[in-house]
Write a structure and sequence with these properties.
By secondary structure, the protein is an all-beta fold.
Length: 112
């Protein structure tokens, strides 16, 4: 079972940027569509973005135009570039694909 490792979170001021990484081992990495989700304590996990195995991307309306998902199959890593961050983006961010366990996530905190 694949367990991804998310990293790159931190504390940033509103308007700033962060790039999250999701490293996942496994020979089937390139076959999977991969999602980013986020969760605020006490709320449901929210879908943020998806990248297909062919590189097609889809975004939640709340992040479209500010976030960019990408993948490097050779490094079995998925990225989430987050620009123009808002306090509402504060959450723990997770990556996920079919058949993967949930990782520990990475905390993103945006101060106003």
């Amino acid at each position: 079972q694949v367990q991804p490792v998310e990293s790159g979170g931190g504390l940033v001021q509103a308007g700033g940027s962060l790039r999250l990484s999701c490293a996942a081992s496994g020979s089937t990495f390139s076959d999977n569509a991969i999602d980013w989700y986020r969760q605020v304590p006490g709320k449901q996990r929210e879908w943020v973005a998806t990248i297909s195995r062919g590189g097609t991307t889809v975004y939640a309306s709340s992040v479209k135009g500010r976030f960019a998902i990408s993948r490097d199959n050779a490094k079995t890593t998925v990225y989430l570039q987050m620009n123009s961050l808002k306090p509402a983006d504060t959450a723990v961010y997770y990556c996920k694909a079919a058949g993967w366990d949930w990782g520990q996530g990475t905390q993103v905190t945006v101060s106003s």
